[in-house]
């Protein structure tokens, strides 16, 4: 057999040479074998995760443009912006803040169900301290956020330190956290009138409600920390394969601990906004079910619950989508008891169109018809 007329692919990439050594590369294999196109890794752009959430949000806004009068009306009063769209950004800021921390937690393959209870605890601490004479305002803010961070440390310790399943570890604080908030407030709704604290949820900065500015600032800080440093890569690697990351020198347990701490901090800021907005600490209703909205926002934004790659911009768009949907139902006089049904259907629709498997099967079904 004349080997000189055989192609490199026919001989194989690791063919034996004439001496029969299995460790030498054949002189005929001067070019590497090219893998099939279906095995080639396709380049994924960051903006692809935003396509479907933005499309869903645009569709929802288009519906309101046609069927909801005054939805896009924005006016300026005393140098500040007011309108339905501004209200959506304002009330959606709490979910945005929670979604930022939740996105990092989910990227590691976990979940934080305790963010709503952490909001209640933070608001209770702030309300109690602000009503005590002689307590400086910076101490009120610092103490409230410190308690929220400690709540995140507790979750991180259980998940990363004691290897408790994330859903179980955070469920503990989700259930017990509101009891802690009730103990802090003695089972009462604590009101306050301090203008410095009420500014957090009701004030304006540069013409916009301050919670919007706060959420945008946290988004910028989170983006810088995760995309301009190696931290984001570490988080994604831990979520994709914690064992391989550990063998590569990444401290997977430390990364998991830190993301839960950050999630607690974000929940604490959201708790201050929530308490300030209604000028009281309501341990029963503060942040109630917002952990579910935060998880939905992250998922709608393109981050998989299995962990790995995360999209902060997608989480913010997902939060806006959920808040816009909620506002739309209220403006269409949909009962609060029925509202979760169309809300769930809309979220399912966006998640389905995001799935390549669903789109492939859907279009193949249409071709068969």
Describe the structure.
- With 369 residues, the protein is mostly helical.
- It has two domains: 30 residues, no CATH class; 264 residues, ABC transporter involved in vitamin B12 uptake, BtuC.
- The protein is 63% helix and 4% strand.
- It contains 15 helices and six strands.
- The strands form three sheets. The protein has a two-stranded antiparallel sheet with strand order 1-2. A two-stranded antiparallel ribbon has the order 3-6. A two-stranded antiparallel sheet has the order 4-5.
- Strand 1 and strand 2 form a beta hairpin.
- Helix 4 runs parallel beside helix 6, helix 4 crosses helix 11 and helix 9 crosses helix 11.
Mean pLDDT: 86
| Count of individual beta strands | 6
How far do the termini sit from each other? 53 Å
CATH class of the largest domain: Mainly Alpha
CATH topology of the largest domain: ABC transporter involved in vitamin B12 uptake, BtuC
Radius of gyration from the CA trace?
Answer: 26 Å
CATH architecture of the largest domain: Orthogonal Bundle
Number of helices: 15
Shape summary: globular
Along the chain, the helix and strand elements come as HHEEHHHHEHEEHHHHEHHHH
Summarize the amount of helix as a percent range.
Answer: 55-70%
Q: Strand portion, in percent? A: under 5%
């Amino acid at each position: 057999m004349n080997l000189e007329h055989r192609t490199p692919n026919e001989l194989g990439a690791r063919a034996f040479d004439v001496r029969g050594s299995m460790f030498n590369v054949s002189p005929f294999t001067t070019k590497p074998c090219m893998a099939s196109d279906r095995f080639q890794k396709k380049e994924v752009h960051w903006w692809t995760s935003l396509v479907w959430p933005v499309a869903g949000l645009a569709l929802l806004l288009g519906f309101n443009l046609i069927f909801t009068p005054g939805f896009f009306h924005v006016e300026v009063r005393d140098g500040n912006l007011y309108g339905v769209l501004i209200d959506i950004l304002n009330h959606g800021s709490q979910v945005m803040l929670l979604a930022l921390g939740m996105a990092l937690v989910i990227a590691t393959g976990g979940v934080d169900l305790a963010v709503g209870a952490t909001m209640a605890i933070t608001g209770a601490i702030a309300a109690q301290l602000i009503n005590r004479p002689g307590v400086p305002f910076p101490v009120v803010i610092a103490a409230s956020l410190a308690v929220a961070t400690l709540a995140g440390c507790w979750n991180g310790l259980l998940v990363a330190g004691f290897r408790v399943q994330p859903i179980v570890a955070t469920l503990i604080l989700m259930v017990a956290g509101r009891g802690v908030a009730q103990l802090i407030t003695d089972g009462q709704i604590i009101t306050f009138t301090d203008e410095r604290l009420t500014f957090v949820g009701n004030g304006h900065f540069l013409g916009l409600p301050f919670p919007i500015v706060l959420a945008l600032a946290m988004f910028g800080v989170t983006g810088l920390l995760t995309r301009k440093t190696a931290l984001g890569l570490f988080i994604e690697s831990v979520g994709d394969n914690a064992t391989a990351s550990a063998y590569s020198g990444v401290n997977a347990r430390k990364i998991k601990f830190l993301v839960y701490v950050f999630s607690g901090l974000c929940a604490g800021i959201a708790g201050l906004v929530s308490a300030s907005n209604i000028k009281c600490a309501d341990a029963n209703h503060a942040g109630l079910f917002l952990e579910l909205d935060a998880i939905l926002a992250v998922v709608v934004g393109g981050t998989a619950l299995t962990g790995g790659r995360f999209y902060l911009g997608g989480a913010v768009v997902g939060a806006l989508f959920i808040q816009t949907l909620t506002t739309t139902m209220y403006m269409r006089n949909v009962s609060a008891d029925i509202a979760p049904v169309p809300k769930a259907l809309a979220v399912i629709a966006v998640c389905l169109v995001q799935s390549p498997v669903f789109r492939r099967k859907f279009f193949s079904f249409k071709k068969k018809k």
